[in-house]
Each structure stands twice: as C-alpha cells, then as structure tokens.
C-alpha cells in the first residue's frame, strides 16, 4: 500500500474533490493548491501537473481493472481446452459480479474515470474495454465455430454496438451513484438480458 505524507494526502483529497466537482478540464490547479493550503511549489514537489495528480487518483484502480478484465478473457479460452464452453456465459456473469464489486470498492476512482476524465489518458477508458472485449470475443467464438459449438455469425459492427451498449449500461451504475446493492442487482439482470440476446444471435450449442 502506498504511503503518503500529510501534505500529499491533503493534495490528493482536495484534488479529488475538485475533479469530481468540475471535471479534469475545468479543474484549477491554482484552486486545488489554495484549497489545500499549500504553495504551488509544495504541489510541484509531488506532481508535475494536474494530469499527474489525476493519474495518481485513478491509475491503480483503473489499470488493475483492465488487467483483471484481460485475465477474464484468458479464462474463457481455458474453457475450450477443458471442454467446458457451455459454462462461458456463467463465467462471464461471475466475472461481472467480481468487477462490479471491485468498481464499488474503488468508487471515487471510477467516478473520476467515467464522469470527469475528459482531457486525460482515461477519457477513452470504456471504449478501450469495448475494443478489447470485441477483439477477444470474436477470436473466442471463431474457435467455438470451428469446433461446431456456434452456428450463428454476428457482424463486427453489430458486435461492437452491442458490446458498447453493454459496457455503457454497466457503468451507468457509477454515473447515477447507485448503491452497491442496487448496482449488483442491476448488472445481473442486464447480464440475463444480454446473454439471452447473444444466445439467440450465435445459436450456441
């Protein structure tokens, strides 16, 4: 766990409040420093600019979720070698519950990423997740098709649209400040809806 000085902790606390209230683009470095009660020189002793401060607030949570998501993709490929592909949608739902709990364990960081990150390297975070999901899932279903476990074919553009709608919907829990309990119920119903749709389109065996 990262250890912070009292000065650094105060900068992070005030910075988070400023970014949540105004978003990255409209947040004022001068305002952050003033509210924290320090000089700009003190700030620069820790962070070279407000982008670095934003990154310090979100990078660990956002980057970890991305890596966990990649691990989930690899786990689906393991189902092929273990001849358990019928469990694919169940595995996806299990991971979804893990992800939503991780998001709520780091709620402020994801609120910043989803709602306040315009102008930062995280502004396309959801899009990056969608692109990764589409790319890996297409390869996965291609392998299942070769094994005779999938009959249907989904156009790439449609696949991207459906996946984008799914991820946008999942992160609506953060946008609308739902409670953890509400979010878990919401995304599990969402998973049922999308799983039924995918089953109909792909005609899984």
Automatic annotation (TrEMBL):
Residues 5-65 form the HTH tetR-type domain. The keyword Transmembrane does not apply. PROSITE patterns: HTH_TETR_2 (PS50977). The lineage of its organism: Bacteria, Bacillati, Bacillota, Clostridia, Eubacteriales. PANTHER family: ACREF/ENVCD OPERON REPRESSOR-RELATED, ACREF_ENVCD OPERON REPRESSOR-RELATED. Signal peptide: none annotated. Pfam families: TetR_N. Keywords: DNA-binding. Residues 28-47 bind DNA. GO terms for molecular function: DNA binding. This is TetR family transcriptional regulator. It comes from the Bacteria. Transmembrane segments: none annotated.
């Amino acid at each position: 766990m990262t250890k912070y000085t009292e000065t650094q902790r105060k900068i992070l606390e005030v910075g988070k409040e400023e970014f949540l209230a105004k978003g990255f683009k409209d947040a004022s470095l001068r305002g952050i420093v003033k509210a924290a009660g320090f000089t700009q020189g003190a700030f620069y002793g820790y962070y070279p600019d407000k982008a670095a401060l934003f990154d310090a607030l979100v990078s660990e949570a956002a980057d970890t979720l991305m890596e966990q998501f990649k691990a989930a993709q690899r786990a689906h490929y393991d189902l092929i070698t273990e001849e358990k592909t019928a469990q694919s949608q169940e595995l996806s739902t299990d991971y979804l519950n893990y992800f939503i709990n991780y998001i709520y364990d780091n709620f402020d960081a994801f609120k910043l990423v989803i709602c306040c990150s315009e102008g930062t390297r995280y502004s396309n975070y959801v899009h990056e997740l969608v692109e990764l999901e589409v790319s890996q899932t297409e390869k996965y279903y291609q392998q299942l098709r070769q094994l005779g476990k999938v009959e249907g074919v989904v156009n790439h553009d449609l696949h991207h649209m459906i996946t984008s709608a799914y991820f946008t919907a999942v992160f609506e829990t953060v946008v609308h400040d739902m409670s953890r309990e509400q979010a878990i119920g919401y995304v599990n119903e969402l998973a049922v809806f999308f799983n039924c749709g995918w089953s109909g389109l792909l005609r899984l065996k």
